[in-house]
Write a structure and sequence with these properties.
The complex is a heterodimer of chains A (about 240) and B (about 280).
Chain A: H1 2-22, E1 35-39, H2 58-73, H3 79-82, E2 99-102, E3 108-113, E4 119-124, H4 131-134, E5 143-149, E6 152-158, E7 178-187, E8 190-198, E9 207-215
Parallel strand pairs in A: 4-5
Antiparallel strand pairs in A: 1-2, 1-9, 2-3, 3-4, 5-6, 6-7, 7-8, 8-9
Chain B: H1 3-30, E1 42-45, E2 51-52, H2 91-105, E3 133-137, E4 141-146, E5 151-157, E6 172-178, E7 181-187, E8 207-215, E9 220-228, E10 237-246
Classes of the chains: A alpha+beta (about 240), B alpha+beta (about 280).
């Protein structure tokens, strides 16, 4: 009896030990999208799927014009570059710095950016609350809820503050913005994120942008402290350092 | 290397690893690695100072000639004044702390570095109060995520230190599991951070070994910290810190969204970029 108890305990311990020992994918059968990723292309201005300009409403156009003018004459500060606040929705996907995806701890996807101390916690398989429930707790990068659909992690994010731009040129958004990211491995070494932007106050229709990253597990993320010299990002096409 | 040889070597490596796992499997799995992580599990530091290990050298403490009143204790809060009579401090450490003491006594608001939004380094990372610390653990990596400023430490498991480590805020941390304990060894720290909230300095030769384990049925995370730096401590300092288990998720938390300078004090500046990074 004692021997049997020891054996069954060992098996139990082994089962509990597995998540940490296994490392990669959590969430039984979930596709493995974990790893360190780094873009090869940077665009200051967002490139929308299908091409063309942002489908701005008159109100959205006024907000965009105000941002562009303010960033140019200095009356609006780009806090993400001056104080290293989070880049916020969509712009965080355009990062020229590497980032990591962990499918851990269980029930959560953790996305850790090198740039600007951004950690995105994606709650798995939990329904996203309504806008009204989150409006009192707005975040730069919003509140994220995800689920796997086949090989794709679908992340719905809402509950944003209005302190960020969708791109570096000042593309605007409201606090009613909802983004839906479809994240998947398109090859063993490539990750694709297609984001759908839903913000009817500023945009006449939902629109999408696509971002592609290379798997770079040999890269170690570094500390990022505002105002200090950081890693070489000249390998990312389109990056301009002042 | 020819393709066949490469494949053969890959298979022999895989076979070796498998054999190692099978042989070592039973003892390795008999003691599961400690898991401090959870989607709804964090750890809040109890207190903001180190606790000495009995019989060992004492960490820096408050100068008994000056009363220290922490926040939220009913009285007018004061800033810390280090006791320079600590016999384990080198002259370099005493000189640095004396300068800090003099600044405080002259009226400078000596808020903690974390309160001014600077990275706290190692071992100061686990002294940041009020906000929880979270873990992400996989076989190869551990991430320690502090809710305060969403700061991150990266620990690479079961690998040696790099031959040449460029000094950085959190240095290079390598880790391993020893039974119920996560052991983290850190070198390559820059000298911009402090060992404690008295602003005890350190050099780039600082070496820190942290041993994390659950105690009291998992209600607390106990950390034993060995701090070695001959520039600062005559004997290596061994201290402990406890963190309390809390059931909550990591949330976005920004320290500075602009310069903070309440009451016009001459406080440390917050990290700011004079020119955009890109």
């Amino acid at each position: 009896m004692d021997d049997r108890r020891i054996n069954s305990r060992s098996v139990l311990v082994a089962v509990f030990a597995l998540p940490i020992l296994a490392g990669g994918a959590y969430g039984q059968g979930a596709p493995d999208i974990s790893g360190t990723y780094w873009a090869t292309q940077y665009n200051a201005k967002i490139q929308i799927v299908g091409g063309g300009d942002l489908p701005l409403t008159p109100k959205g156009k006024a907000a965009y014009d105000k941002n562009v003018a303010g960033l140019k004459d200095g009356s609006i500060t780009d806090d993400a570059r001056k104080y290293c606040t989070p880049d916020g929705p969509v712009r965080n996907l355009a990062t020229p710095y590497p980032f990591e995806i962990f499918q851990a701890p269980p029930g959560q996807i953790t996305i850790i950016h090198e740039l600007n101390h951004q950690i995105r916690v994606v709650a798995l398989d939990k329904p996203a609350p309504k806008y009204e429930e989150l409006v009192a707790f707005p975040y730069y990068n919003g509140h994220a809820y995800g689920k796997f659909e086949g090989d794709t992690l679908v992340v719905t994010t809402l509950g944003f503050n209005e302190k960020t731009f969708l791109d570096a040129t000042g593309a605007p958004h409201t606090d009613e913005l909802v983004t839906t990211e479809r994240i998947r491995r398109t090859s063993p070494t490539e990750l694709e994120v297609v984001v759908t932007v839903h913000d009817p106050d500023y945009y006449t229709r939902d629109w999408q942008a696509r971002f592609v990253y290379k798997l770079r597990n040999e890269v170690r993320l570094e500390d990022y402290v505002c105002g200090e010299p950081h890693r070489d990002i000249t390998s990312v096409a389109g990056v301009r350092r002042p | 290397m020819p393709e066949q040889a490469r494949i053969a070597s890959r298979y022999s490596l895989a076979a070796g690893l498998l054999a190692g796992l099978v042989c070592a499997g039973a003892p390795a799995l008999a003691q599961s690695p400690p898991d401090f992580s959870g989607a709804n599990l964090g750890w809040i530091a109890v207190g903001t100072e180190w606790t000495a290990v009995p019989g060992g050298p004492q960490p820096v403490k408050q100068d008994p000639a000056h009363r220290y009143v922490p926040n939220n204790t009913g009285g007018q809060p004061t800033f810390r004044i280090a006791d320079l009579n600590n016999p384990n401090l080198t002259q370099f450490a005493k000189d640095s702390l004396k300068k800090t003491n003099e600044e405080v006594l002259a009226g400078k608001p000596m808020w903690s570095r974390s309160a001014r939004c600077w990275a706290t380094g190692v071992p100061g990372f686990i002294l940041t109060p009020a906000q929880p610390l979270f873990f992400v653990q996989t076989a190869q990596q551990v991430r320690m995520l502090h809710q305060h400023d969403n700061d991150v430490r990266r620990i690479f498991m079961n690998v040696p230190h790099s031959a040449n480590v460029k000094p950085s805020w959190y240095g290079e941390s390598v880790g391993r599991y020893e039974g119920d304990t996560l052991v983290i060894d850190t070198i390559g720290l820059n000298d911009k951070t402090f060992v404690d909230n008295f602003r005890t300095p350190h050099s780039e030769k600082l070496h820190v070994v942290e041993r994390y384990r659950l105690v009291e049925g998992g209600r607390f995370l106990q950390t034993e910290v060995l701090i070695e730096d001959a520039a600062v401590f005559i004997e290596p300092l061994k201290v402990t810190k406890r963190s309390r288990r809390v059931e909550q998720s990591l949330v976005e938390w920004r320290c500075a969204a602009g310069e903070i300078n309440y009451f016009g004090y001459d406080a440390d500046p917050v990290p700011t970029a004079t020119t955009p990074d890109f």
